[in-house]
């Protein structure tokens, strides 16, 4: 049985707060979590444009450097599920501050390595730290923010997941061109030190259940399922796919996933608590919301390829164009709360979900002859819709989840988020391969028409996710959004 929220018995009593008011330092906590999320998401994509220089430093082929990205993403997917148990067992402040310390130290190690195996090992360590930061940081925000302030808080911590994949490649290219790839990782050092100070100063070391046992079978099954499925999809989206190996990995992943699901449902103290899926709003955000995240996550992969390989632009021109998506993300943040208060979750998610899918489909109409102003307008519109959808889904996820289930819900949400990020990139690669097959040529001669088909496939994935949103109640999440449905006449 879970214990009620409360400070660690070794900590001084927390200052009393007025009913409905945020705890001390709540704004700093939200800002801190947003900053750590940004570091974690940025490090997953920023090295993409630095891979050739890194390969030269390590004396390996550039293609071999994919190990640095894969090792990081797989480690995140494997270790995120134990973050909830760690927070319950050791306390929010202890785990979050330790995660920042591990992530920062691993970043320094990444910058100081001189061989690929050493770099991959440092990336694994960095992934462990990142896996703890993501769900535990969100949990800290959820506990530090009253319901009526949840929309604004979630909006702030959502932008790293939107912005980092967009600005990561051009920023990495800029640092690599004008300095050294090692500064990509050294920049985390001052940010990490500031983050640890704020976490230790303002976070309470609350625990849900300090006696909760570690679910080793659940952790092993979840890790096996995540690793094999993500790696299989990466193989399927690559050139010269080893189909026997990919098929075997898919089979193992599916079996491990089913076994993990059955185990987590029956275990008394599972590594990931699935009970939050009984909450309708959370279940819908995890179901249809995951399909939307998959479609959106394919965009940062497809856009630079389309601009550089399909349209013949250089890396700098490509990076400048993708910043239009970033501009749309930021502008929408200014009006997200009023929009949600005016219309409510259900109408916004359905209508905006369709618009987001249409904006992806519109990218299929772009060609080398399309004026730059039109390209910018399409990307800007896509940034607007995806920002609103991301924030609304992430807020709705926890709108109705009881406080006692927040830890498990946060871990499950973060696991699925990381999985969908990796799957989205793989889906983009698979869609491109399907387009090449349809047009009857190999991947060595990618044409602009291939990207048109790929974006249409990705748009369909996002559109399918909208269907799940029709199951929401009309007043879903009204406590958080502040929306008050109009009464019908005669009521």
UniProtKB/TrEMBL annotation:
Chief localisation class: membrane
**Domain Major facilitator superfamily (MFS) profile as annotated: residue spans:** 29-477
Translocase as a keyword of this entry, yes or no, is no
Molecular-function GO terms, alphabetical:
transmembrane transporter activity
Residues annotated as region Disordered? Answer: 1-22
The organism's superkingdom is given as Bacteria
Alphabetized, the UniProt keywords read:
Cell membrane, Membrane, Transmembrane, Transmembrane helix, Transport
Classify the protein's membrane topology as the record does: Multi-pass membrane protein
Q: What are the coiled-coil residue ranges?
A: none
Which CDD domains does the UniProt record give? MFS_LmrB_MDR_like
List residues traversing the bilayer. 69-87, 94-114, 120-141, 153-171, 183-202, 214-233, 245-262, 282-303, 315-336, 348-367, 373-399, 411-431, 451-473
Q: Where is the composition biased (Basic and acidic residues)?
A: 1-13
A GO CC term?
plasma membrane
Q: Where in the cell is it found?
A: Cell membrane
Q: Which protein is depicted? A: Major facilitator transporter
């Amino acid at each position: 049985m879970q214990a009620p929220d409360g400070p660690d018995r070794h900590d001084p009593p927390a200052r009393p707060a007025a009913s409905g008011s945020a705890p001390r330092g709540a704004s700093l906590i939200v800002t801190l979590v947003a900053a750590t999320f940004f570091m974690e998401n940025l490090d997953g994509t920023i090295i993409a444009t630095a891979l050739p220089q890194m390969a030269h430093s390590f004396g390996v082929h550039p293609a071999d450097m994919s190990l640095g990205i894969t090792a990081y993403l797989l480690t995140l997917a494997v270790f995120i599920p134990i973050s909830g148990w760690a927070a319950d067992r050791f306390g929010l402040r202890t785990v979050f501050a330790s995660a920042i310390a591990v992530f920062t130290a691993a970043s320094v190690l990444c910058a100081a390595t001189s061989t690929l195996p050493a770099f991959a090992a440092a990336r694994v360590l960095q992934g462990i730290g990142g896996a703890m930061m993501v769900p535990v940081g969100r949990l800290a925000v959820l506990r530090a923010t009253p319901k009526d302030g949840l929309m604004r808080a979630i909006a702030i911590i959502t932008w790293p997941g939107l912005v980092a994949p967009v600005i990561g490649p051009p920023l990495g290219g800029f640092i690599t061109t004008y300095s050294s790839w090692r500064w990509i990782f050294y920049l985390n050092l001052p940010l990490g030190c500031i983050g640890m100070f704020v976490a230790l100063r303002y976070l309470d070391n609350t625990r849900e259940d300090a006696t909760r046992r570690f679910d080793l079978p659940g952790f092993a099954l979840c890790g096996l399922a995540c690793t094999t499925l993500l790696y299989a999809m990466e193989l399927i989206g690559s050139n010269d796919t080893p189909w026997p190996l990919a098929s075997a990995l898919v089979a193992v992943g599916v079996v491990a996933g089913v076994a993990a699901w059955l185990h987590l449902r029956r275990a008394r103290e599972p590594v990931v608590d699935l009970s939050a899926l009984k909450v309708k709003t959370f279940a819908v955000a995890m179901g249809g919301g995951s399909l939307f995240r998959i479609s959106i996550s394919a965009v940062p992969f497809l856009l630079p390829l389309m601009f550089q390989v399909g349209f013949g632009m250089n890396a700098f021109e490509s990076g400048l164009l993708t910043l239009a998506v970033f501009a749309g993300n930021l502008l929408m943040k200014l009006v997200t709360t009023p929009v949600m208060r005016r219309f409510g979750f259900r109408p916004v998610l359905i209508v905006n979900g369709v618009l987001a899918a249409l904006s992806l489909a519109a990218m299929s109409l772009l060609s080398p002859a399309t004026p730059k102003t039109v390209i910018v307008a399409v990307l800007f519109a896509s940034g607007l819709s995806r920002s609103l959808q991301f924030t609304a889904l992430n807020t709705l996820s926890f709108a109705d989840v009881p406080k006692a289930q927040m830890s498990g819900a946060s871990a499950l949400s973060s696991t699925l988020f990381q999985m969908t990020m990796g799957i989205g990139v793989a889906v983009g690669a698979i869609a491109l391969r399907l387009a090449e097959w349809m047009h009857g040529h190999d991947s060595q001669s990618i044409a602009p028409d291939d990207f048109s088909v790929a974006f249409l496939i990705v748009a369909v994935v996002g559109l399918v996710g909208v269907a799940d949103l029709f199951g929401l109640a009309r007043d879903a999440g009204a406590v958080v959004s502040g929306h008050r449905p109009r009464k019908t006449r005669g009521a």
